[in-house]
Structures are given as structure tokens and as C-alpha cells.
Structure to design on (194 residues):
């Protein structure tokens, strides 16, 4: 049996969970999310409606053991999303690089001959802390937040792929806590050959 799947999920006071067949709907202060569970996995609200148990009726089947923990994690993420939300912080390093939000689009100026415009998905908010990067010391900083953990992570990943950090000067887009392994450039020597 899955160790993660066996753990009960606590439901906060301001969150309501509705079950209808295999569909789980979670309502909270930030909004509502819903998901269809796999037919082999059952979801039950227990106690006084303040805990959820995920039940795997056929633990001998390998796929069901895998789905057990996955379904539990997805439902726990939905509950966390509607109560607190999720956030990814990104930074842009490079002289003259900047980020703006215009007409529902994220506009990046990151060393290309053109501006990179990206449509901000529905349910995602972009909060720009520092618009312009100043050299290698002060990066442009912004964060992406929303209820859906998958949507937040996916949009952050798409933004980072536009210009991943390069290893020599570290210029590009990176996550806030990401470590970029730096390489030493070519060393030029002077003098003649004997």
C-alpha cells in the first residue's frame, strides 16, 4: 500500500469538499477546483467532515498502488490551492533585461531583437516586484501565483524556457532559489612560443 495514499487529508475550516461519484469539487476562499478521480480509487469524507480518506480497493494491482498516492497528492494540492494558493518566484539576470505586464500579456525584453509576449493563462496572477535588471547584482524579479499548482508550475516553466540561464555570465531567466553552475571562460595567454 502507498504510504502517502494512506495519510488522511485535513480539511481547513474555510474549505468545503463535495463528492459526486468520482468527481471531487473543492471550494475555498480563493475559488473552486474540481477533478475526476480514477475509477479504481475511492474518496471518502470522514469524521465531522474535516478529513478525507483515499481508498485503494485493489492494492495488489501495481497501477492502483501508484494511483493511490497520486490521487491523494492531487486532492491535497487542490485543498491547499483554494485555501492558500501557490506561488513561483522568478528572476531575470542581464543588463537591459526587463519584464512588464501589458493587456493580459507578460512582455519580456531579454536580449532578443524582439519583445517576447506571452498570454497570461486564466486563473494566474503575475506580480512584478522589480521591473528592470541592473547588471549581475540586481535582477528583475516577479512571481506567478494561482490556485492550481500544475498551472502555476507549467507557466513558470514556459517562461524559463524562453531564455534559460547560461553558464558563463548567468544571464537569463531562473527560479528564485535556483543555483546556476558557472563555467570559467577561455583563458588567453600572451607571449610567443619557444
Amino acid at each position: 500500500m502507498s504510504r502517502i495514499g494512506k495519510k488522511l487529508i485535513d480539511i481547513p475550516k474555510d474549505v468545503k469538499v463535495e463528492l459526486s461519484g468520482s468527481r471531487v469539487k473543492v471550494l475555498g476562499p480563493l475559488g473552486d477546483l474540481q477533478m475526476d478521480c480514477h475509477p479504481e480509487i475511492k474518496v471518502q469524507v470522514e469524521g465531522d467532515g474535516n478529513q478525507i480518506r483515499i481508498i485503494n480497493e485493489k492494492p495488489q494491482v501495481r497501477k492502483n498502488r501508484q494511483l493511490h498516492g497520486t490521487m491523494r497528492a492531487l486532492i491535497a494540492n487542490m485543498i491547499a490551492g483554494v485555501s492558500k494558493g501557490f506561488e513561483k518566484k522568478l528572476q531575470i539576470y542581464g543588463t537591459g533585461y526587463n519584464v512588464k505586464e501589458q493587456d493580459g500579456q507578460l512582455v519580456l525584453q531579454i536580449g532578443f531583437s524582439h519583445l517576447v509576449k506571452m498570454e497570461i493563462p486564466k486563473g494566474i496572477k503575475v506580480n512584478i516586484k522589480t521591473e528592470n535588471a541592473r547588471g549581475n547584482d540586481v535582477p528583475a524579479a516577479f512571481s506567478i501565483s494561482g490556485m492550481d499548482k500544475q498551472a502555476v508550475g507549467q507557466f513558470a516553466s514556459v517562461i524559463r524556457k524562453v531564455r534559460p540561464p547560461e553558464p558563463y555570465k548567468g544571464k537569463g531567466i531562473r527560479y528564485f532559489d535556483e543555483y546556476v553552475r558557472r563555467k570559467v571562460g577561455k583563458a588567453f595567454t600572451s607571449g610567443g612560443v619557444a
